[in-house]
């Protein structure tokens, strides 16, 4: 019978398994299972085999042999570097497509594109007329995504601004201070040595930790300055995307109003509140992108104010005025009112009283003229209908088979709608 003697073989080279938790290489055997000596995590990459000295039948000699793990590490898709205005361009493009589906002119696409390109050029974001102007804009209004862009290999944005604020408020951490001290000692000891290109450890020590000491280009944390910056016409926001679309409709579709834009956005006919879901999957978001693409509840006054600022900033002196006559005709048809009412409303409008700010609240004025005309025709003065409503309620309580018109109930039903 062949003789054999026990021997234990541990591979400590590249075949030696490594603990998945602590990267340790020493393991203890317990009942045929192997556990890391540091964190006591069971290893799935070890098995026990017995072999004879002559390479024959397996017996009681133990040897630890590694087996190739079939598990593959998941590669995280970090996307690619991208610019904030690239995302705004995609959002505006999708909003224009939605407006065209709702019946807007196909020319809207070219008009909004021209407005957007003029805006990018005027702010200095893209193809500026003056390169120095671009630098001034970037220092004043650039976000962290543009100020500290990532690379193709590592598109993650470094939290430089947070580190600057932390350093300014709390000072350098103990870990960074110790690392800086070690780097300085290393540089002092090797300053007179000669190295081949790329082998100098002092250069690697300097490149490992970027310099966050300069606060020259750091955004101010003052809430007043942040609020002023966001109100600037040069600071692009989600609200301005709708402003570009509305200005485009003024050139192509004269019957589209701000109220229509707000209603379509609320009804999700136009992508606005969740427009960031339209971006490609390789455009990954970070924490600093939240405020950039945040949205608020749309208000008529805010949208109208931003639109007027854009018109003045872009020097759009040829923006067509929306005719009140056309708007009143539009609302009369939408409300299914008698066609004869149109003539009475036109006679009530006095165009010579509105020579300036023709775009301001024009849809509200059109509805105001219609309501005023109805009041004159039906003899309503906001007082008579109340008295008639009280009488109608008493008559309905007496005569159950009859239904007299009650203006209060009609107003309540309209508000519910």
UniProtKB/TrEMBL annotation:
The UniProt record lists the keyword Transcription regulation: yes
Domain annotation Rrn7/TAF1B N-terminal cyclin: ranges: 204-281
For this UniProt record, the keywords arranged alphabetically read as follows:
DNA-binding, Metal-binding, Nucleus, Transcription, Transcription regulation, Zinc, Zinc-finger
> What Gene Ontology terms describe where this protein resides (cellular component)?
RNA polymerase I core factor complex; RNA polymerase transcription factor SL1 complex
InterPro entries listed in its UniProt record: Rrn7_cyclin_C (IPR048538), Rrn7_cyclin_N (IPR048540), TAF1B/Rrn7 (IPR033599)
Q: What is its main location?
A: nucleus
The UniProt similarity line reads:
Belongs to the RRN7/TAF1B family.
Record-given protein name? TAF1B
Phylogenetic lineage: Eukaryota, Metazoa, Spiralia, Lophotrochozoa, Mollusca
